[in-house]
Design a protein that fits this description.
The chain is α/β, with parallel strands linked by helices and about 210 residues long. The chain has 2 domains: about 5-55 and about 120-210, Rossmann fold; about 60-115, Ybab, Chain: A (2-Layer Sandwich). About 40% of the residues lie in helices and about 20% in strands. The chain contains 7 helices and 8 strands; from the N terminus they run αβαββββααβαβαβα. The chain has helices spanning about 5-20, 35-45, 80-90, 90-115, 140-150, 165-170, 200-210, and strands spanning about 25-30, 50-55, 55-60, 65-75, 75-80, 125-130, 155-160, 175-180. The strands form 2 sheets. It has a 5-stranded parallel sheet, with helices on both faces. Strands 3-4-5 form a 3-stranded antiparallel sheet. Strand 1 (about 25-30), helix 2 and strand 2 (about 50-55) form a beta-alpha-beta unit. Helix 1 (about 5-20) runs parallel beside helix 2 and helix 4 (about 90-115) crosses helix 7. The longest helix is centred in the middle third of the chain and has 23 residues, at about 90-115.
């Protein structure tokens, strides 16, 4: 399946979640900026739940930044892809340098998107984490661990597309995983979209204000 764009993917994902979960009490939909927010906005609309953002930054391997060696999330959470770190011989100094750089961008986005709104209160909430797709799962795993520290009632991961192997791994840390497509083999998230244009900061702010 190919989605027209992120809004189309969100519409389909929202319908699937409504069918599987029904009405959700004390729920909140959290989009992972930037690409996950347009998807999350449609999910929140279909489920009639509040929408917010949850900040996660991938830690890319130096020289091969698209390949994640880990991720950081709001709240000081850091998750490492230990297999990648070990196989590539990445030392702690390199990891710390990349994490420090990404933390600056994470904090910038936190201010840009959330402004002076108070920190999210997720205790006892049924949290639905939404992204536009998952590859290695490092970013969403960091988000799950960070959300868990706030003691929510449950954590559901919802995405339009993710590799079958990653979905299986994430079911060990999330209460529930819902995906429209779980291809095996998996090539790239963007391959499943006709329009995979990068989401801008202004689009994220507009969706949150709406």
């Amino acid at each position: 399946m190919q989605f027209r764009d992120r809004v189309h993917a969100g519409e389909l994902l929202g319908e699937l979640l409504h069918h599987e979960l029904g009405e959700i009490d004390d729920g909140i939909v959290l989009g992972l900026p930037r690409g996950g927010v347009p998807v999350a906005a449609e999910v929140a609309r279909r489920l009639d739940l509040p929408l917010d953002v949850y900040l996660v930054r991938k830690l890319g391997v130096p020289g091969h930044e698209e390949y994640a060696m880990g991720a950081i999330a709001s709240g000081g959470i850091r998750v490492l892809n230990t297999d990648a770190v070990r196989s590539l011989g990445i030392d702690q100094t390199t990891i710390d340098a990349v994490a420090e750089r990404e933390l600056i961008e994470l904090e910038r986005r936190e201010i840009a998107y959330r402004g002076d709104r108070p920190p999210l209160d997720l205790e006892g909430k049924n949290v639905i984490l939404v992204d536009d797709g998952i590859a290695t799962g490092a970013s969403i795993r960091a988000a799950i661990e960070a959300v868990r520290s706030a003691e929510p009632a449950s954590v559901t991961v919802a995405v339009p597309v993710a590799p079958l192997s990653t979905c299986r791994a994430l079911t060990e840390v999330a209460d529930r995983l819902v995906a429209l497509e779980m291809p095996d083999p998996f090539y790239a998230v963007g391959w499943h979209y006709v329009d995979f244009t990068q989401t801008t900061d202004d689009e994220v702010r507009r969706l949150l204000e709406a």
